[in-house]
Amino acid sequence: MKKLLLVLIVCVFALTTFASYVDILFVNDTHGHAWTFDSNIGGFNILSTVVSAARMMDDNVLFLHAGDLNTGVPESDLNDAAPDILSFNMMKLDAMTLGNHEFDNPESVLETQMELAYFPFISANIYKDGKPAFQEYIIKEFGDLKVAIFGLTAEETQILEKLYAGEYEWKNAVDVAKKLVPELKEKADIVIALTHLGSIKPVIGTSSVMLAEEVEGIDVIVDGHSHTLMEEPMKVNDTLIVSAGEWAKYLGMLQLETTEEGINVLSYELFPIRSDLTNGDYDVEVILDYFEKLGGEKLDQVLANSKIYLDGERADVRSKDTNLGFLIADALKKICEADIALTNSGGIRASINAGDITYKDILTVLPFGNTAYTIEVPGSVVKDMLDFTATVADGKGARPQVSGITYTINRATQKAENILINGEPLDMNKTYKLGTNNYIASGGDGYSMLEGLPGYDTGFVLAQVVVNYIKDLEDYSPYTDINNRITVIE
Length: 490
Fold this sequence. Notes:
Blueprint: H1 4-13, E1 20-27, H2 44-57, E2 61-65, H3 74-77, H4 82-90, E3 95-97, H5 107-116, E4 121-122, E5 126-128, E6 131-132, E7 137-142, E8 145-153, H6 157-160, H7 162-165, E9 169-170, H8 173-187, E10 190-196, H9 208-214, E11 220-223, E12 234-236, E13 239-242, E14 250-259, E15 262-272, H10 282-294, H11 296-299, E16 302-306, H12 314-317, H13 323-335, E17 340-344, E18 355-358, H14 359-365, E19 371-378, H15 379-389, E20 400-403, E21 405-410, E22 415-421, E23 424-425, E24 431-437, H16 438-441, E25 455-461, H17 462-472, E26 486-489
Parallel strand pairs: 1-2, 2-3, 3-4, 8-10, 10-11, 11-13, 17-24, 21-26
Antiparallel strand pairs: 1-14, 5-6, 5-9, 7-8, 12-13, 14-15, 16-18, 17-20, 19-24, 19-25, 21-22, 22-23
Helix pairs in contact: 1-2, 4-10, 13-17, 14-17
């Protein structure tokens, strides 16, 4: 069984005995998932074995990462993604585009990560002081074949990660590509856009589909951001779009050949990265074991015990109320001594199973390091805030989880109705104390109406706020039966 994956690689690479070709290996949205999870899924030691096998079979291998290396697993987050970067160094990653979560931390952390990496972080549409802030592209040569790879990062990063992404100027990806691609076509036989744009409609800016529709000359878009697993390449005009899902569950491989007639697809595969299919790379395992043990004792400390499952699944928290969303919002309301609380579902990254709850569990749910923030909000602005939530589509991280508020979202009018604050009608002339996180308080995720209002940062990290709340929580019954705080009518 463990030989199966390597046999598949041999079969695919056996095709490449003629013509000018390149094998593009790719991952995206790995989010700190350097270790195997769910008993046999993923793991960079397994990924390294597969990448090494591909390189052993063929010299014309290009290995790319389409962004979001950061944020999602405590052992990685506590070490600023050092285990991830060191592992990719071992795999000889050729390039990574910057994802929005590369801006979760201060610029000094990003600079340290770039210094640690043996591969370039590329993006052509992020500027600072009127100049590109990062390397825009690379060109790789495979014999006579030249391949250009340029990076693009979602413009909505300036909203999604406003605390640190706001330090940069975000150029329109289509405009940048229209200028850059002709230049690269003069230098290379194949042009690849390594993008963190996503294939779904963004809050603002460009999707990978829009890029392919509007820019000529891009042969392949290797995409991330929307966590899309493309079982077949999507073809838009003359451009192929590929993406490998999330968390290195799969390694994508697109094999291209160039002929006088143009570029042909020889094969496309999504290789499952599983520990029951192949052995792990020992050298990478040593790195991962070291970082896993580094903070293990603190992470495994039991804080409380829950008799119920707390739902933080991405598809659920971004489309409806959940009991974990309620718990986090309630914890914010308590620490801020607030009338109401609101947090964005995009900050909730995992569920908590029934049973013992550890510090690691909480950090997995809330990995971003955001702090609790108190704001004085006029009733009229509370209305504006809730009206904004009525415009947020299901699946978007701006979808709120609330405490102290019940209301109805009318999809037809895109307005908030029947607003009650702790059981009383919203008073437009009253000032309410809102508990939220510093990201939302700064106007992140589209909550621009809150930016600049009187308030203060409590300094309490949200994960620790929830830890303290759970430690004191004796009764989980409020989170057993979900009575919607937000009702949606179409």
